């Protein structure tokens, strides 16, 4: 006898709730179809369902996301970095308290005390015919972020070594829910032949029909749940093994909206609006924002991050503020609206010559106009870099470009090219190759759980008091 097992999956929604009613409708429809035929099916998620860029997720610290997944009927999920490192310890510890599904994540534990009741390394389902499916979850090991938040994140490879032997003995099929990224999924498939399927995310890759590495089927469905993934496993009961594996990703952007989900979202939005409408400050004058110019509020925010981190100097990009603030009462929702990024302050150690190179690179037109996507940034362009604690002489060339002619500290002290300085900035620049000198710095001190918008709020309060 052969039996088909259907697994529907999502990954990296990032709280794109405009898309969610269609995604939910598709999943509910598939669930009804499979149930009516008596076919085995599961709905799973590979992480980053939540993103605090959305007011609903911000107001509820992700609990609304859990409620939405309950409403669809998820069976098992893992967590992504947006669930894991953008919440304070207690908010993450209690995030899934009301979840109707287990959360598998083998490489995450609190540094002290008992793990939350919802967190397990693995979870095993058994079909009516006796086929045992083992799910194991792994999340990106961002140690520098998890550690100050009170969590221990371990090597995914070590956890696979620890868990797979026992899981192999207890199951017929092993499925990894991975929030590690495509290259890591491929390496895991090469190393661990026990894994039958990897359902992945994190790097927002789309594998329309999957790919095979070492007989392991690797899948992923892009980002924002424009696509929903499906894995079909055919299990041969006579040979007691999988006979075929198939993977598909379906574009659901034109699928009918599920009205139940749409109504629930409206209710959650109303609750979020009430939570975020709390007045936090009153402005005596409007505050303008310009992405390619120095503005007082952006300069004051840059000053705040320098003072708050006790750094020698600071630099922040104007693209962090997405809009202006009007005169009068300002709510927390207003602050979130103009600074929605899940970005933390960081202090990096740079030698003087590296600092000068960062300043020069950041003032180039192509850098300022770069339309950054990812690394926590949720804006449009990087924008002009502003500096605190530094005095920079700039020459404007005939073609409109700018050239740095001299850099000193604000008190006139010259920058020693060989001396190490503590420079505060946005953690965005510690990733990728935007500013290589910052990314490759061997000493980085992340400040968590505060986001830049928390420092923006402090800046606005201080500004109001000074009036």
TrEMBL record:
<dbReference type="Pfam" id="PF00149">
    <property type="entry name" value="Metallophos"/>
</dbReference>
<comment type="similarity">
    <text>Belongs to the 5'-nucleotidase family.</text>
</comment>
<keyword id="KW-0378">Hydrolase</keyword>
<dbReference type="Pfam" id="PF02872">
    <property type="entry name" value="5_nucleotid_C"/>
</dbReference>
<dbReference type="InterPro" id="IPR004843">
    <property type="entry name" value="Calcineurin-like_PHP"/>
</dbReference>
<dbReference type="InterPro" id="IPR008334">
    <property type="entry name" value="5'-Nucleotdase_C"/>
</dbReference>
<dbReference type="InterPro" id="IPR036907">
    <property type="entry name" value="5'-Nucleotdase_C_sf"/>
</dbReference>
<dbReference type="InterPro" id="IPR029052">
    <property type="entry name" value="Metallo-depent_PP-like"/>
</dbReference>
<dbReference type="InterPro" id="IPR011240">
    <property type="entry name" value="Pesterase_YunD"/>
</dbReference>
<feature type="domain" description="5'-Nucleotidase C-terminal">
    <location>
        <begin position="290"/>
        <end position="428"/>
    </location>
</feature>
<keyword id="KW-0732">Signal</keyword>
<keyword id="KW-0547">Nucleotide-binding</keyword>
<feature type="domain" description="Calcineurin-like phosphoesterase">
    <location>
        <begin position="7"/>
        <end position="205"/>
    </location>
</feature>
<protein>
    <submittedName>
        <fullName>Bifunctional metallophosphatase/5'-nucleotidase</fullName>
    </submittedName>
</protein>
<dbReference type="InterPro" id="IPR006179">
    <property type="entry name" value="5_nucleotidase/apyrase"/>
</dbReference>
């Amino acid at each position: 006898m052969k039996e088909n097992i259907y697994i529907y999956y999502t990954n990296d929604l990032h709280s794109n709730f405009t898309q969610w009613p269609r995604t939910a409708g598709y999943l509910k429809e598939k669930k009804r179809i499979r149930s009516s035929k008596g076919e085995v099916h599961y709905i799973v998620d590979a992480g980053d369902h939540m993103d605090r860029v959305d007011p609903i997720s911000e107001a509820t610290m992700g609990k609304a996301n859990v409620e939405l997944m309950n409403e669809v009927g998820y069976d098992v999920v893992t967590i992504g970095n947006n669930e894991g490192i953008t919440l304070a310890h207690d908010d993450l510890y209690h995030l899934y308290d009301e979840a109707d599904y287990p959360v598998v994540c083998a490489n995450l534990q609190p540094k002290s005390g008992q793990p939350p009741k919802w967190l397990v390394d693995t979870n095993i389902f058994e079909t009516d015919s006796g086929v045992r499916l083992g799910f194991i979850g792994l999340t990106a090991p961002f140690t520098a972020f998890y550690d100050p938040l009170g969590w221990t994140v371990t090597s995914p490879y070590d956890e696979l070594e620890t868990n797979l032997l026992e899981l192999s003995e207890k199951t017929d099929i092993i499925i990894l829910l991975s929030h590690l990224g495509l290259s890591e999924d491929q390496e895991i498939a090469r190393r661990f032949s026990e894994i039958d399927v990897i359902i992945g995310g994190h790097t927002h890759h789309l594998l329309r029909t999957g790919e095979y590495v070492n007989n392991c089927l690797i899948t992923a469905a892009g980002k924002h749940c424009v696509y929903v993934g499906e894995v079909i496993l055919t299990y041969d009961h006579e040979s007691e093994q999988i006979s075929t594996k198939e993977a598909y990703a379906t574009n659901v952007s034109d699928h009918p909206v599920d009205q139940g989900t749409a109504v629930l979202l409206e209710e959650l939005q109303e609750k979020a609006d009430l939570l975020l409408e709390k007045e936090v400050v009153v402005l005596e004058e409007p505050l303008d924002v310009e992405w390619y110019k120095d503005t007082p509020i952006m300069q004051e925010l840059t000053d705040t991050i320098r003072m708050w981190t006790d750094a020698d100097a600071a630099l922040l990009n104007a693209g962090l503020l997405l809009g202006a603030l009007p005169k009068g009462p300002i709510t927390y929702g207003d602050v979130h609206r103009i600074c929605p990024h899940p970005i933390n302050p960081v202090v990096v150690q740079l030698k003087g010559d590296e600092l000068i190179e960062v300043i020069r690179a950041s003032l180039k037109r192509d850098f300022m106009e770069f339309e950054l996507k990812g690394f926590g940034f949720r804006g449009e362009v990087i924008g002009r870099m502003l500096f605190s604690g530094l005095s920079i002489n700039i020459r404007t060339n005939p073609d409109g470009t700018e050239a740095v002619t001299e850099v000193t500290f604000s008190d006139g002290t010259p920058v020693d090219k060989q001396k190490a300085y503590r420079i505060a900035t946005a953690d965005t620049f510690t990733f990728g190759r935007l500013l290589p000198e910052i990314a490759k710095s061997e000493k980085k001190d992340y400040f968590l759980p505060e986001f830049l918008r928390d420092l923006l709020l402090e800046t606005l309060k201080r500004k109001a008091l000074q009036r």
